[in-house]
Amino acid sequence: MLTYRNANNKDLKEINKIFTEAFLDYEMFTAFEPDRKRRRVLVQHMQTLGIMTDIRRRQLFVAEDEGRIVAVTSIHFPDTKQAGVFDYIKEGALSALIRCGVRKTLGWFEMYSACVKPCGTVEKPVFYVEDLAVRPGCQGKGYGSRVIQELLIPVVRKKGGGTLTLITNNEKNAAFYEKNGFICFSKGRYKKGRIDIGNWCFKMRVL
Fold first, then answer.
1. How far is it, in rounded angstroms, from Cα 201 to Cα 173?
2. pTM higher than 0.85, yes or no?
3. Which CATH number fits domain 2-206: 2.60.120.10, 3.40.50.1220, 3.40.630.30, 3.30.420.40?
């Protein structure tokens, strides 16, 4: 039986490990850093910033199976002010800039903002799923689908309903979200310099 709860600071290390392993070879990161060792540093820093700000806003959730975290997801609520530049600096963004390089870090944020932008055009209120990751070794067991059906959709309903949105840069993931009831409303590519990745934007109206 899966149980769900808000993540807390004690979960930070374990969540970071799950996110890092899940997204280490994800297109949005491989496009920026081909070297796997340096990419691990980039992913760890980016995920730490997101995890800490999401915990503070109580929008990061974990799914546990017999007390073990098997999946993690973050959902941005329309009635919650989201993190800005100063929030990320407070959480350690300067360290990421130093370790990963200013140009690379800012370039990554620019790319991410461009890919997410279509999600702001859908019917409001908009709930944005920033991350959904299943612990490596636990994938393929239906945990991701259950998080969507048993946690994300009920959370939106509890808040009065709205449009659940997310993006992916991976065709396999796109098929997964379609299987779980999401509709692709924008499909394209992000191109800048040597960066060229696919971008699928999905939505689901929850009443």
1. 11
2. yes
3. 3.40.630.30
